[in-house]
Amino acid sequence: MRAALKCFAARGYFGASMRDIAAEADIGLAGIYHHFSGKQELLQAVMTVTIEDVFASTRASVAAIPDDRPREQLAALVRAWVEFHTVRQEDARVGASEVHCLEGEGRDRVIALRDEQEALFVTTIERGARLGVFTTPYPREAARAILNMGIAVATWYRLDGDITPHGLAERYAQLSLDMVGAIDLRE
Q1: Which residues does UniProt assign to DNA binding (predicted)?
Q2: Where are the beta strands (DSSP E) in 74-132?
């Protein structure tokens, strides 16, 4: 699957052939077909693993934070989201750009997982608004903006740049709190 990911990231789904993937994996074409029925199944596998991994990361980031602390929950979600997009850039780029290439049940599964991921952000922001911690009148739009802000990181961030994944994640967490009009009730 790693070879397929590299090829999809470099050439796109339609530009990558099964021969390209086999060459990248350094195995024969028959070896690829022994494990996968075709390129569509490979794309579905790559994208399912990616969305499952990032969703597991974001869910774990808020697991120990009580629901009455949406400010901390949102910051944790954003940190996990951004860090994933800084260290798994190829996965993130393919996940964002090739979803339109998915077909059938594979597409339905990836879309359902993506919707669950979005719902985690939306419900956190809505809860914060209900509790008076966030002032945004647009929780759903704020969630989508935050998610897309994180996705874009995979297109420009460089690990050898001037900020670490953790440092960037902290900045994006603060930007996200600003976006939702977070109020620090401890003051």
Answers
A1: 17-36
A2: none
Q: What are phi and psi of 134, to 5 degrees?
A: -115, 140
CB neighbours of residue 46 within 10 Å: 24
Q: Dihedral sign for Cα 73, 76, 80, 81, please.
A: positive
The pTM of the full predicted model, rounded to 2 decimals, is 0.91
Residue matched to tokens 């003051």: 187
DSSP 8-state code for residue 134: B
Which two structure tokens, joined as six digits, stand for 64?
């120990």
pLDDT digits (tens, 9 = 90+) for 15-48: 999 999 999 999 988 888 888 888 999 999 999 9
Q: What is the pLDDT of residues 119-128, one digit of tens each?
A: 999 999 999 9
Those residues whose C-beta lies under 8 Å from the C-beta of residue 183, and which sit 6 or more positions away, are: 132, 133, 134, 135
Count other Cβ atoms within 10 Å, centred on residue 13. 21
* Upper half-sphere CA count for residue 10 (Cβ side, 13 Å): 11
pLDDT by residue (tens digit) across 71-90? Answer: 999 999 999 999 999 999 99
Domains of the chain: 39-179 (1.10.357.10)
pLDDT of 186: 58
